[in-house]
Each structure stands twice: as C-alpha cells, then as structure tokens.
Amino acid sequence: MQVSPSLLAADFSNLAKDIDMINKSDADMLHLDVMDGVFVPNISFGFPVMESVSKICTKPLDVHLMIVHPERWVGQVRDIGAGIMNFHQEACVHMYSLVQDIHNAGMKAAVTLCPSTPVDTLKDIIGELDMVLLMSVEPGFGGQKFIPHTLTKTEELKKLINKSGSSALIEIDGGVNAETAPLLAKAGADILVAGSYVFNAKDPISVISSLRKH
Ligand code: DX5
Ligand code: ZN
User: How far is CA 181 from CA 63, 115, 140, 152, 178, in A?
Assistant: First the structure.
C-alpha cells in the first residue's frame, strides 16, 4: 500500500516541521488539498503556499484540486513541480482534453469522484488515467467519518480497471485510519490519503509505516 499524508491536517504555523517529518517518513507522496470556496464550502491554501512546500518537500506532490475550472491551472500545478494533478469529474466537462494537457505538462493525471458520483461514469476514459481518487467523505474538510459505501465503489472500480486493461491506481481520500485501512486494502485500494490520522498522532512516522503495511 502507498500512503499520501494530507497536509490539510498539518500545523500551518509550522509547516517546515511537519514537512521535515514527511521527508523522514516512508510516505510515498504528499497530498495537497486546494479548495476554492466555490466547488467546496471551504478555502484551504493555494499556489504561494504550495510553491514554498515544494521547495522543502522531497516527496512527489499529489495535488488534489477541489476547485471549479481545473483546466485553467495546469501550468501553475506543473510549475510547482507536482507529480500528480487530481481534478474533480464534477468540475470538468472536457475531461479528455484536460487529461491530455496534464500529460503534456509532464504530470500524472487523476480524476476524483465525490461519494455520490458512480464509478461507471469513468468507463470511457479509464484507459487514459494514471489514477482515480475516490472520495470517502464529502470533499471540503478533514476529520470526517468514512462513508462505508466507498468499499463497494472501490471493488467496482477495481473491476472496471481490470476489465478495461487500464493501469490506473486507486487512491482513497477521507476517514482513513487503522479501522478503515485494512478494509480498503481488501477492496483493492493502492494509495491511502490520511490527514488527521497521521498528523494528530503522537508518532506520525510510525502511523505512516503502519498504513503502508496493508
Ligand atoms: C477532504 C480532503 C482530504 C482530507 C482528509 O476534502 O480531500 O484530503 O485532508 O482528511 P482526513 O484524513 O482527516 O479525513
Ligand atoms: Zn484530498
């Protein structure tokens, strides 16, 4: 299992300390949640913060855009050196073009689905994707309760990926902890995003390692 700790739950008054912890941990990447107050009812941080983070973070950046018009920001996401650009299916009409633009910018392309968006809607684009991010909570806030239906969705997505011969990885975001991680591993998840479970822990480095063991 790969692990992508979400910076949303970090101490914003001392990001350098938390990023140093991430660098020392065996986290596979760092998840950055961008919220615009329009697509989701919250505002987090934007490019100036991510640019500073990218200067000191040694892990690939997994950028999760919870914003309208994600197609407008490909260049800026590339410029902060992101490895993966996640955009919401619900915020994008022309997904083929956007996926192509993300690839042309040298990044991996991932489509994110809100909890109520069916996996089937990816049937005609799954072959183009490097990753699918399933939200296991409504996007916008950390620390929410895991929606159990995500387990069925993960299994459905795994079937769709296998059937289509796609190499897309499955990432899950929201309410990941010691209880939900093994269930997600069994259902077919490849990458777990974890915010509060990692950053609220006494020993975040060992929490990251324990998640990776699944
Ligand atoms: C929610 C964000 C998540 C969030 C997860 O909109 O996309 O990445 O940080 O937080 P936890 O792990 O606390 O549920
Ligand atoms: Zn996220």
Answer: 21, 17, 21, 14, 6
